[in-house]
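Fold this complex.
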Amino acid sequence: MERNTRQRSAIRDAIAQADRPLLPQEVLEAAQHDVPGLGIATVYRNLKALVQEGELQPVNLPGENPRFELVGHQHHHHFQCRQCQRVFDVHACPGDLGRLAPQGFTVDDHDLTLYGRCKDCVAPADKSVKRKASDSGTHNHASTHTHRHRS
Amino acid sequence: MERNTRQRSAIRDAIAQADRPLLPQEVLEAAQHDVPGLGIATVYRNLKALVQEGELQPVNLPGENPRFELVGHQHHHHFQCRQCQRVFDVHACPGDLGRLAPQGFTVDDHDLTLYGRCKDCVAPADKSVKRKASDSGTHNHASTHTHRHRS
DNA sequence: ATATTTGCAAACTATTTGCAGTTGT
DNA sequence: ACAACTGCAAATAGTTTGCAAATAT
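Structure:
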């Protein structure tokens, strides 16, 4: 049965306090504020465990590494800002899209990602932008691929 | 300026003759029928070059490694079969989804992926299924994460 | 002739796993 | 006590890159 370790709590808290889905690396950095010695392997192990326990859910966007957020509302979508790369939840949904599939195919679910500019980045080169680059959720990946996938 | 090598032609042909987006590994296997000694690095280099030249476009699905297809129809979406994992193009589109974004956000594009069963897999345990597993476009990846990418 | 391309191996990034030591219950 | 958990290092998978040999023009 599961134990309550400092590292697990720090990981859970880091995600609970974020206002958007976090990458494993972002979780590590946030959780290290509580547990300095925390290792990335422990983050991955706990993310996987917390997903299986139903506390977290993975957020997969096209060409992006998986992010993690608390399980909340069941069906929802995401928005990625083309400027700061951060990902936000979108609670609206276009509804049933089964009609879009080819003849003979059955559709039971869908993923939707919107792209554009988030509220912070829509504003002109305004000095009032308070978000720091390190908080952008950005990671590396060229335009063509990404990051990737492993299996 | 670009040269016309046997390997580049084999790679281009493999994708042109496929009826769905292919993974780099699938491109390699198909192109090796023409050029047995072909290496995976050459496939990656050519895929990147062909994308930059505008001949190919990457197809990124959530939690999947990038696939590649010919540049054709501009805006379209994809369907992934939950059984055989293959990906198909969907030419229909729900239209403008800007209204779904939060207040203050601007939307200029979207990605949509439908999930369900493809025509071949909808049919019951019918012996007439002629597709072989190796043609399934499947690759490895657990449910939670996936591949990834690099930077 | 010569600049581009290729194959191979090494390097890289993201993620997973083995293992011995640490810790929660 | 002792099974679960952790950190570290090694292992994987996908992708990229350096380099000498091969090749298109």
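DSSP finds four helices and six strands in chain A.
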